[in-house]
Amino acid sequence: MLDQTTLEKAEQIIQTNYFGTKNMIKAMVPLMRPSEPGARIVNVSSKLGRLSGRRNRIENAEERKKLENEELLSEELIDEVMETFLKEVKDGSWKEGGWPNVFTDYSLSKLAVNTYTRLMAREFASRPEGQKIYINCYCPGWVRTAMTSWAGHISIEDGADTAVWLALLPDQFVTGKFFSERREINF
Ligand SMILES: NC(=O)c1ccc[n+]([C@@H]2O[C@H](COP(=O)([O-])OP(=O)(O)OC[C@H]3O[C@@H](n4cnc5c(N)ncnc54)[C@H](OP(=O)(O)O)[C@@H]3O)[C@@H](O)[C@H]2O)c1
């Protein structure tokens, strides 16, 4: 029998973290003003959403490869992966689906944010000089917020540090990358 709570929770997490981020970017881009150093978008993600993570990745290599291939990446493809997962949650088959095994819905929502960051970086690259937008994502670490029931070991200020750094990077036109503690990490 369908566990309504599980489905509602998965839908809410994916809607908020992935579709919410995507809709916000789409709403904001036309409002971003051209600037010499380029406008910046920083998506808050998580290492739990790594494509290549050894312990918490999509186990199905074919599905993983589709999302890894930057040239083939599309919004439809990312949406389709989210919809396939939600469909499996609905019919109860998701546990055999080879999805990330820790915080599965949350991890997938962040994996979608990461891949969408890469996709948008590719799209923004064709914007003319002076109207560039640089987009990156980062993991804040385990931060003392409501999400961790205040049990994280990083202060809110330190958790925000890499985001602020990425937003203000002068003369470094880095885009489509994933960061943690001011360092680039693998997707
Ligand atoms: N804390 C960590 O250790 C950690 C680790 C990795 C990544 N992150 C990421 O960091 C970001 C911030 O998390 P946090 O730790 O600050 O979590 P948090 O303390 O739980 O705060 C989450 C914020 O998101 C808002 N929110 C939730 N659902 C929303 C919705 N549907 N529409 C609009 N706003 C909504 C909440 O608003 P209300 O207060 O009004 O409910 C709250 O302000 C998240 O993207 C999280 O995934 C956090």
TrEMBL record:
Residues 51-80 form a coiled coil. InterPro entries: NAD(P)-bd_dom_sf, SDR_fam. Pfam families: adh_short. One of its GO terms (molecular function) is oxidoreductase activity. Gene3D superfamilies: NAD(P)-binding Rossmann-like Domain. The keyword Oxidoreductase applies. The keyword Lipoprotein does not apply. One of its GO terms (cellular component) is membrane. Keywords: Coiled coil, NADP, Oxidoreductase. Belongs to the short-chain dehydrogenases/reductases (SDR) family. PANTHER family: (+)-NEOMENTHOL DEHYDROGENASE, SHORT-CHAIN DEHYDROGENASE_REDUCTASE. This is Uncharacterized protein. The lineage of its organism: Eukaryota, Viridiplantae, Streptophyta, Embryophyta, Tracheophyta.
